Amino acid sequence: MGNLADKITNWIRDYAVNNGLDALCVGVSGGIDSAVVSTLCARTGLPTFVLSMPIRQKQDQHTLSVDHCISLLEKYDNVHWETHDLTNAFESFENMFPNADGLTMANTRSRLRMVTLYAVAQSNRGIVVGTGNKVEDFGVGFYTKYGDGGVDISPIADLTKTEVWALGAELGVDQRIIDAAPTDGLWDDGRVDQDQLQGLTYAQLERAMYLQDMLDKTANAAEPFTAVDANETRLLEQYRAIRKPNLHKMLPIPVFKK
User: Is the per-residue pLDDT at 231 higher than 80?
Assistant: First the structure.
């Protein structure tokens, strides 16, 4: 994993330098994905702005975010930490749209954070670095369109969650972050990712992605892939059910052609 960490670090640095950019900006949530990405950005040596953006946040989530930012400050002199409490801004939106459902307001939290990240990035001639992994970005589309999906580059979007956890351990990420149940932190009730993904774990989602990929690759082959038992058939059905309504996030914006 050490070699992978170096490759991604160099990739981030090269992109910024080749495009005449001065800084990197990352939202830090207290989860493994943002912890890994912010660490990789810090390793580039470029000015790296790490942002904590609580919105009525569960205290344990905010504590992990703050502790991670402090650890980066202690290890890297190019890191700048900012905390922007967006609770008042979010509650203003709540008051404006009293009939909005829970999902709408959860996505609003994510989009407020995106706006904040871009305000800091643009003020420092920088870019917003995404924290989505392969399962979220290209598997089930488990992210907010123009929220945490609104980024300039995505350094871990080709890594599964399992690979991100392993990379986090290699980078020395706080074990509490590695062990914490993955959550998007967008709900007052503190629900975790598994609650929102039909009860499926990331290991199950990764297995379903592999099975679907093999089925797609061998669909027209002389010996198509068929190693799917009844349990894995049900797993694939669940995976497809989660993925289908989110496909619009993963496809180009439709454009009418005259």
Answer: yes
